[in-house]
Design a protein that fits this description.
The chain is α/β, with parallel strands linked by helices. Helix content is about 45%, strand content about 10%. Strand 11, helix 21 and strand 12 form a beta-alpha-beta unit. Helix 11 packs parallel to helix 12, helix 16 packs parallel to helix 17 and helix 16 crosses helix 23.
């Protein structure tokens, strides 16, 4: 179960009176989550924030004192060899617009940035299947991150429309005659123009049979929910190619996100004082830095370890009884017991690779692979559960670790403050330009970046979760044995090409659908 799907259909009662009953699908998850978040603060569970001791001190001491051979470091940073495939997102035949649009398609996308990104690609594909005009997708208010950012706040909408202008018709908003078709309209009653029964991974035929008649009758169809509502298999190749074109060409971030991302990348490659001391002319900063120094290398680490993730995993993270109680309580209130992992012991979950790695554990993995303490590490993450106390061991292993707060000036941070989607967009952009990307646990950002970096043949380390879980369960293992097992277990997990299998996502495995043999 993906974390960003965890908040659908879990709240079935009114919280603030009868007026919210009819609006519950739209408003209640946010009200409930906000209320619970305040109720479960440190004032309610003060012991939850006790100091967190390292769980793997036996090997940690050796990891801190490690010395990496130059040859091993050189091999780590060496770019991937050409794998015999090249980007090929364009359709093999010239795209054509239909003579007549069947009507307007609206989609309402929930989840976080990367789940919404995949939904946007699918929405374009569905519009093409139906010969319909796509309305710029509506991004739902996320109840976890509480971010109201719109499509146009995140993505360059004019670029999006221009790249796809020969494939489908796209409008920024509905014409006046359909202005009644809003999110609020569909939240208050059952409507004939809303499609809410689209099955997960629905076929192209399902849309032709169930959505096209609505378009023909009303001129508009609103599909909600829409996440993961188009199959990856048995589709015409031009539809698959179109999805690839959207993901890898049409979706680019707004200019100010790209500018900030470029500035952070420059500061990682050319360290030169604090962000506060740097000028606001990012382009000059970027081009000027390269004149006097050789570009340095850096790793982006997506540290997916927020409270939501920790609780849903049902694993023990070494925070003691108070932490276990807090996570169990959170799990019960948010998911009301519907977390399958809670049926298993911590050992069972770890041995199966179902526990997200803590900052300490991902640090030990990187150290064992050969990254030394001079490695520049960029931390791409939302709030880390346990705060700085939980990150301190990772920082001990990698003292040159940076993040948005340490690299960006206060003015730069103010442009994206409180906007989880924009923060994630900056991390995605920096992650795409790093020498190496690694995610501590699988998830939507991991999947999106693995696919995008495969498309560009960039090095990406995929942790072997089952192996790491088993190694961390071994409390008598020595550093040399741990290191050897990690290196051997990740030799073929650094970006090597993997062909997409049936039911797998084209956005994570872009070969062969999005690429051609070179």
């Amino acid at each position: 179960m993906k974390m960003e799907l965890g908040y659908k259909n879990h709240h079935h009662y009114s919280y603030r009176g009868a007026t919210l009953v009819t609006l519950s699908l739209l408003l209640f998850p946010l009200v409930f989550f906000t209320t619970f978040t305040h109720a479960s603060s440190s004032s309610m569970y003060p012991a939850e924030w006790n100091p967190i001791k390292p769980r793997h001190s036996r090997i940690l001491k050796s990891a801190v004192q490690r010395e990496t051979p130059t040859s091993q470091l050189s091999e780590l940073w060496t770019p991937l060899e050409k794998h015999g495939w090249k980007p090929c997102a364009e359709s093999r035949k010239k795209p054509t617009l239909p003579e007549k649009s069947e009507g307007y398609i609206q989609v309402f996308l929930d989840g976080g940035l990367n789940q919404q990104r995949m939904g946007i690609c699918d929405a374009v594909a569905v519009a093409k299947i139906l010969n319909a005009t796509l309305v710029i997708p509506y991004l739902e208010l996320n109840p976890v991150w509480r971010d109201s950012s719109s499509f146009m706040d995140i993505f360059d909408v004019d670029h999006f429309i221009d790249v796809l202008k020969d494939d489908i018709s796209i409008v920024k908003e509905l014409p006046e005659e359909y202005s009644w078709s809003t999110r609020e309209y569909y939240a208050t009653a059952i409507r004939d123009t809303r499609i809410k029964a689209a099955p997960v991974h629905a076929s192209a035929f399902w849309y032709l049979e169930n959505v096209l008649p609505v378009l023909e009758s009303y001129g508009i169809a609103a599909i909600s929910p829409f996440s993961h509502r188009l199959t990856f298999d048995n589709l015409p190749m031009d539809i698959q190619h179109l999805r690839c074109k959207v993901n890898f060409q049409a979706l680019v971030f707004v200019p100010h996100i790209r500018t900030l991302g470029d500035a952070l990348i420059s500061r990682l490659r050319y360290p030169q004082g604090s962000a506060e001391e740097m000028g606001s002319n990012h382009l000059q900063e970027i081009t000027g830095a390269g004149d006097s120094k050789t570009a340095g290398k850096f790793v982006v680490l997506h540290l997916r370890f927020d409270k939501d993730m920790a609780a849903h995993s049902a694993c023990d993270f070494g925070g003691g009884k108070a932490e276990k109680f807090a996570l169990a309580k959170y799990r019960q209130v948010i998911w009301q017991g519907r977390v399958l992992n809670s049926q298993f012991t911590d050992e069972e979950l770890r041995s199966q690779g179902r526990c997200p790695m803590t900052p300490e554990e991902i640090g030990l993995l990187l150290a064992a692979m050969g990254f030394d303490n001079s490695t520049r590490l960029y931390l791409a993450s939302h709030k880390v559960y346990g705060g700085e106390a939980r990150i301190s061991t990772l920082r001990q292993l990698f003292p040159l670790m940076e993040d948005k707060k340490s690299l960006a000036s206060s003015y730069e941070r103010s442009q994206i403050k409180g906007k989880a989607s924009l923060l994630a967009a900056v991390d995605y952009y920096v992650g795409m330009h790093s020498d190496i990307f690694i995610s501590a646990s699988p998830g939507n950002m991991h999947n999106a970046l693995v696919g995008h970096r495969t498309y560009l043949n960039l090095k990406t380390i995929r942790p072997n979760m089952a192996l790491m879980g088993q190694l961390f369960l071994n409390k008598t293992i020595e550093w040399s044995e741990f290191q050897q097992a990690v290196v051997e277990g990740h030799q073929n997990r650094q970006g090597q090409l993997r062909l997409r299998k049936p039911k797998q996502s084209v956005y994570t495995y872009p070969v062969p659908d999005c690429m051609c043999q070179a």
